[in-house]
Design brief:
single chain, 14 strands, alpha/beta, 501 residues
Length: 501
Amino acid sequence: MKLFFEKYERPALVFSGAALLTLVLMNLEFNLLEANLYDLRMTRGTSPQPDKDIVLITIDDETSKELGEFSPLPLDLHTHFLETLEQNPPKGIGYLVDMNRVTESNSDSLREEWSKRFLETTKRLQTKGTHFLFGTPFDVTGEVLPPYPLSTLPHAIAIIHKDGNVFSEDKITRRALTYLNDKPVFHMQFAQDMGFTSAGKVPRGSFYVPEIDGYQFFFRYHGPTTQTPNPSSSYTRLSFAQVIKGQLPSPDFLKNKILLVETLVKDDSADYASTPYSKTQYTNPKILIHANILDSIIHNDGIYKAPKWVNWVLTFASTAFVIAWVIQSTPLYGVFSTLGLLTVLFLSSLFLFSFKGVWLRLSQPLIGIFVSYYLVVPYRLIIEYKKRWNYQKKNDLLVQVEELKTNFLSLVTHDLKTPVARIQGLTEVLIRKASGRLLERDQETLHNILTSTEELNRFITSILELTKVESNRLQLHFESKDLNQIIERSIENFKTQSRAL
């Protein structure tokens, strides 16, 4: 039973630790961290190219200066704008200007005249194949329609969603509304009118939000959203005044294009929003965000959020790997493996996000990696301390045994020297007294006894010297000697034995 427990102790610890940590982490929300990781992948990853047919027409400060009117301009200028487009009709016109803010003409009669003319111009464009759609505001009362008779034109709610009370709660636009109360909103309706998607179809990655009874999806940003982006990675932008005055790259430049028209005043916060690219105020025009949302719907390249079970599996696998690796490897390898896992995990998620449009939630796996590492390291230290304690105990025991052995040898050799010396002395006395009275064979026997005792005495002396070496008590004294004297002394010591041979 003990062997079975020792065999499966480590796998059981890895599995149970990873399962428990995964269960805890998956019941917690780390929306702020997840939002920052989402933004990091959105801004640092590869973005799809913006649709070159989408053109942004802005009623900006340049327009106000050239036309001598304040944004959002009088109705007659909006009518002239549409009349200019009749010569080369675009594919669609998404009018995101709040017509309730449009300044009135000198009299109600003139306003009615210009409204009628605006309406007639729009209908002529529609007969030429141009799809027109008003983007209307939305407040607590519902959709805010344009003033009559403009309200008779096609219209749909145009909302820039901000993560204000869900997800990261940082007021950044990452998702877009597609359906509200079973009705398509501006971007969805505009794409359906132009034939890019069918009625009732939702973009890739859409999900239902019961609190608002609508559908949303995380759309793709097709490049930076600041006012001065790289021209090769952004949408074409023209001022309202340029279109009215005919200052276009070519006379038919806007033909079959998709136009989005909106105000863009430098100091009007209503014309700007925060995006993953920048949280600075007055840097991200809303019209550019509208273009990205429409582009994502047209090309159906929204972000697909991986199912929750994938997050469970990823969190469990990451924590299990860290626990198993840290337990069985050295501390240095444990650090490198943890950092390597973090790198591989992030790069893999970045690849899936950029090229496949798949969003893997990384907050729980990343936190699981760090938590499991810092939980397992103390356990690993306990194991190492336990091994060190065992080694120390064994070493102390070996030292005691060695000391006992050394003491035993010292005592035994000292005790052996006494009887050996007595045997040697008695043998020498016997040889001297019995010399000439013993047979030659008996004398030889006595000499053999004497020789054996001398050999035994040298052996005992060697054992004593060995114990001194092992106990580090043997001291070597180096002296200069005459080699000839040493040889002569050796010959003199063995002269008697040589004669006896």
